[in-house]
Amino acid sequence: MNGIILYGTCYGSAKQYADELSRRSGLLSVSYEDAGDLSAYDRIVYIGSLYAGGVLGMAVTLGKLADWQSKQIVIATVGLADNENEENTQNIRKGMQRQLPAGMMEHAKLVHLRGGIDYSRLNMKHKVMMGLLYRKAKNLPPEKKTAEVRAMIDTYNQGVDFVDLSRVDELL
Ligand SMILES: Cc1cc2nc3c(=O)[nH]c(=O)nc-3n(C[C@H](O)[C@H](O)[C@H](O)COP(=O)(O)O)c2cc1C
Predict the structure, then answer these.
(1) Domains (ranges, CATH) in the chain?
(2) CA Rg value for the chain
(3) Which residues partner with 77 through β-bridges?
(4) Checking DSSP bridges between strand 28-31 and strand 43-51, what pairing results, if any?
Protein backbone atom coordinates (compact mmCIF):
# COMPACT_ATOMS: atom_id res chain seq x y z
CA MET A 1 0.00 0.00 0.00
CA ASN A 2 1.51 3.35 -0.98
CA GLY A 3 1.00 6.31 1.26
CA ILE A 4 2.04 9.84 2.06
CA ILE A 5 2.23 12.03 5.15
CA LEU A 6 1.08 15.64 4.77
CA TYR A 7 1.46 18.34 7.37
CA GLY A 8 0.19 21.88 7.98
CA THR A 9 2.38 23.90 10.33
CA CYS A 10 3.35 27.50 11.12
CA TYR A 11 6.05 26.96 13.74
CA GLY A 12 7.11 23.33 13.32
CA SER A 13 5.22 21.15 15.87
CA ALA A 14 3.11 19.37 13.24
CA LYS A 15 6.22 18.90 11.08
CA GLN A 16 8.05 17.30 14.02
CA TYR A 17 5.31 14.66 14.28
CA ALA A 18 5.19 14.20 10.50
CA ASP A 19 8.96 13.78 10.20
CA GLU A 20 9.06 11.28 13.07
CA LEU A 21 6.25 9.29 11.46
CA SER A 22 8.14 9.41 8.17
CA ARG A 23 11.26 8.06 9.92
CA ARG A 24 9.30 5.20 11.49
CA SER A 25 7.12 4.30 8.51
CA GLY A 26 9.33 5.08 5.53
CA LEU A 27 6.55 7.20 4.01
CA LEU A 28 7.39 10.59 2.53
CA SER A 29 6.46 13.64 4.65
CA VAL A 30 5.46 16.78 2.71
CA SER A 31 3.91 20.16 3.54
CA TYR A 32 0.28 20.36 2.37
CA GLU A 33 1.33 23.31 0.20
CA ASP A 34 3.50 20.93 -1.86
CA ALA A 35 1.05 18.00 -1.84
CA GLY A 36 0.29 17.94 -5.59
CA ASP A 37 -1.90 15.17 -6.98
CA LEU A 38 -2.90 12.69 -4.26
CA SER A 39 -4.94 10.33 -6.43
CA ALA A 40 -2.23 7.66 -6.56
CA TYR A 41 -2.07 7.21 -2.78
CA ASP A 42 -4.12 4.56 -0.97
CA ARG A 43 -3.18 5.87 2.44
CA ILE A 44 -3.04 9.53 3.49
CA VAL A 45 -1.96 10.75 6.91
CA TYR A 46 -2.78 14.42 7.48
CA ILE A 47 -1.17 16.14 10.49
CA GLY A 48 -2.34 19.72 10.95
CA SER A 49 -1.98 22.30 13.70
CA LEU A 50 -5.00 24.02 15.22
CA TYR A 51 -5.43 27.73 14.56
CA ALA A 52 -8.61 29.31 15.96
CA GLY A 53 -10.38 25.95 15.77
CA GLY A 54 -9.32 25.24 12.18
CA VAL A 55 -6.84 22.52 11.18
CA LEU A 56 -4.20 24.27 9.08
CA GLY A 57 -4.41 23.25 5.40
CA MET A 58 -6.79 20.34 6.00
CA ALA A 59 -9.90 21.68 4.27
CA VAL A 60 -8.06 22.73 1.12
CA THR A 61 -6.09 19.47 0.91
CA LEU A 62 -8.65 16.81 1.85
CA GLY A 63 -11.59 18.78 0.46
CA LYS A 64 -10.40 18.26 -3.10
CA LEU A 65 -9.55 14.60 -2.66
CA ALA A 66 -11.43 12.42 -5.16
CA ASP A 67 -12.41 8.83 -4.36
CA TRP A 68 -11.50 9.22 -0.67
CA GLN A 69 -13.95 6.48 0.37
CA SER A 70 -11.55 3.90 -1.06
CA LYS A 71 -8.51 5.34 0.74
CA GLN A 72 -7.24 4.89 4.27
CA ILE A 73 -7.23 8.34 5.88
CA VAL A 74 -5.69 9.30 9.22
CA ILE A 75 -6.11 12.86 10.50
CA ALA A 76 -4.14 14.16 13.46
CA THR A 77 -4.62 17.59 15.00
CA VAL A 78 -1.86 19.36 16.93
CA GLY A 79 -2.95 21.92 19.52
CA LEU A 80 -2.15 23.40 22.88
CA ALA A 81 -5.01 22.03 24.93
CA ASP A 82 -4.99 18.76 26.84
CA ASN A 83 -6.03 16.02 24.43
CA GLU A 84 -7.08 13.69 27.26
CA ASN A 85 -9.93 16.09 27.94
CA GLU A 86 -13.16 14.77 26.37
CA GLU A 87 -14.76 18.23 26.06
CA ASN A 88 -11.70 19.50 24.19
CA THR A 89 -11.74 16.55 21.81
CA GLN A 90 -15.42 17.11 21.12
CA ASN A 91 -14.81 20.80 20.36
CA ILE A 92 -11.99 19.96 17.97
CA ARG A 93 -14.19 17.39 16.19
CA LYS A 94 -17.10 19.81 15.89
CA GLY A 95 -14.77 22.22 14.09
CA MET A 96 -13.37 19.45 11.86
CA GLN A 97 -16.86 18.36 10.86
CA ARG A 98 -17.42 21.81 9.34
CA GLN A 99 -14.11 21.73 7.45
CA LEU A 100 -14.36 18.27 5.86
CA PRO A 101 -16.60 16.77 3.15
CA ALA A 102 -19.65 15.01 4.64
CA GLY A 103 -18.77 11.55 5.90
CA MET A 104 -15.00 11.91 5.74
CA MET A 105 -14.55 12.42 9.45
CA GLU A 106 -16.42 9.20 10.25
CA HIS A 107 -14.38 7.37 7.59
CA ALA A 108 -11.02 8.62 8.91
CA LYS A 109 -9.04 7.59 11.95
CA LEU A 110 -8.70 10.65 14.22
CA VAL A 111 -5.88 11.37 16.65
CA HIS A 112 -5.41 14.50 18.77
CA LEU A 113 -1.83 15.45 19.61
CA ARG A 114 -0.30 18.23 21.64
CA GLY A 115 2.08 20.87 20.30
CA GLY A 116 3.69 23.85 21.91
CA ILE A 117 3.99 27.59 21.66
CA ASP A 118 6.82 30.08 21.96
CA TYR A 119 5.46 33.61 22.13
CA SER A 120 8.86 35.08 21.28
CA ARG A 121 8.62 33.39 17.86
CA LEU A 122 5.02 34.32 16.97
CA ASN A 123 4.48 36.60 14.00
CA MET A 124 2.76 39.95 14.58
CA LYS A 125 -0.69 38.73 13.44
CA HIS A 126 -0.59 35.74 15.81
CA LYS A 127 0.71 37.87 18.71
CA VAL A 128 -2.19 40.29 18.26
CA MET A 129 -4.71 37.43 17.96
CA MET A 130 -3.44 35.75 21.12
CA GLY A 131 -3.45 39.08 22.99
CA LEU A 132 -7.10 39.64 22.09
CA LEU A 133 -8.08 36.05 22.91
CA TYR A 134 -6.25 36.21 26.24
CA ARG A 135 -7.97 39.41 27.36
CA LYS A 136 -11.36 37.96 26.44
CA ALA A 137 -10.60 34.56 28.05
CA LYS A 138 -9.34 35.97 31.33
CA ASN A 139 -12.69 37.60 32.03
CA LEU A 140 -14.83 34.55 31.28
CA PRO A 141 -16.74 33.03 34.24
CA PRO A 142 -15.10 29.78 35.47
CA GLU A 143 -17.79 27.53 33.92
CA LYS A 144 -17.05 28.98 30.45
CA LYS A 145 -13.31 28.30 30.73
CA THR A 146 -12.91 25.17 28.61
CA ALA A 147 -9.68 23.10 28.56
CA GLU A 148 -8.68 25.04 25.42
CA VAL A 149 -9.23 28.41 27.11
CA ARG A 150 -7.41 27.31 30.26
CA ALA A 151 -4.42 26.05 28.25
CA MET A 152 -4.21 29.39 26.48
CA ILE A 153 -4.40 31.38 29.73
CA ASP A 154 -1.85 29.15 31.50
CA THR A 155 0.71 29.42 28.72
CA TYR A 156 0.19 33.05 27.73
CA ASN A 157 3.43 34.88 26.87
CA GLN A 158 5.54 31.81 27.65
CA GLY A 159 7.42 29.12 25.79
CA VAL A 160 5.99 25.63 26.33
CA ASP A 161 6.53 22.37 24.47
CA PHE A 162 4.15 19.44 24.91
CA VAL A 163 5.25 17.58 21.76
CA ASP A 164 5.32 13.85 22.55
CA LEU A 165 6.80 11.89 19.67
CA SER A 166 6.04 8.56 21.36
CA ARG A 167 2.41 9.11 20.29
CA VAL A 168 3.36 8.81 16.61
CA ASP A 169 2.76 5.05 16.88
CA GLU A 170 -0.97 5.80 17.12
CA LEU A 171 -0.81 7.04 13.52
CA LEU A 172 0.76 3.90 12.10
C1 LIG B 1 -3.21 32.48 16.66
C2 LIG B 1 -3.22 31.13 17.28
C3 LIG B 1 -4.40 30.41 17.40
C4 LIG B 1 -4.42 29.13 18.01
N5 LIG B 1 -5.59 28.44 18.13
C6 LIG B 1 -5.62 27.24 18.78
C7 LIG B 1 -6.83 26.51 18.94
O8 LIG B 1 -7.89 26.92 18.48
N9 LIG B 1 -6.78 25.34 19.63
C10 LIG B 1 -5.62 24.83 20.15
O11 LIG B 1 -5.63 23.76 20.78
N12 LIG B 1 -4.44 25.47 19.96
C13 LIG B 1 -4.42 26.66 19.30
N14 LIG B 1 -3.23 27.33 19.11
C15 LIG B 1 -1.99 26.69 19.55
C16 LIG B 1 -1.33 25.95 18.39
O17 LIG B 1 -2.17 24.98 17.85
C18 LIG B 1 -0.03 25.29 18.90
O19 LIG B 1 0.85 26.31 19.26
C20 LIG B 1 0.57 24.35 17.88
O21 LIG B 1 1.58 23.59 18.48
C22 LIG B 1 1.14 25.12 16.69
O23 LIG B 1 1.60 24.18 15.78
P24 LIG B 1 2.75 24.47 14.72
O25 LIG B 1 4.04 24.67 15.52
O26 LIG B 1 2.80 23.22 13.92
O27 LIG B 1 2.38 25.67 13.93
C28 LIG B 1 -3.20 28.58 18.51
C29 LIG B 1 -2.01 29.31 18.37
C30 LIG B 1 -2.00 30.56 17.76
C31 LIG B 1 -0.70 31.30 17.64
Answers:
(1) 3-117+160-171 (3.40.50.360)
(2) 16
(3) 48, 112
(4) unpaired
Q: Look at residue 162 in the predicted model and tell me its pLDDT.
A: 96
Cβ–ligand 1 distance for 77 under 6 Å, the answer: no
Say how many Å lie between the CA of residue 49 and the centre of ligand 1: 6
Mutate to test the pocket of ligand 1, among 9, 19, 46, 50 (most ligand atoms within 8 A of CB): 50
Q: What are phi and psi of 12, to 5 degrees?
A: 110, -15
Residue 137's Cβ-side half-sphere holds a number of Cα atoms within 13 Å equal to 18
The residue type at 106:
E
CA 40 to centroid of ligand 1, rounded, Å: 31
Does ligand 1 come within 6 angstroms of the Cβ of 160?
no
Query: 62-121 pLDDT, tens per residue?
Result: 999 999 999 999 999 999 988 888 999 999 999 999 999 999 999 999 999 999 999 999
Tell if the pTM clears 0.90, that is, is over it.
yes
pLDDT at residue 172 in the model:
87
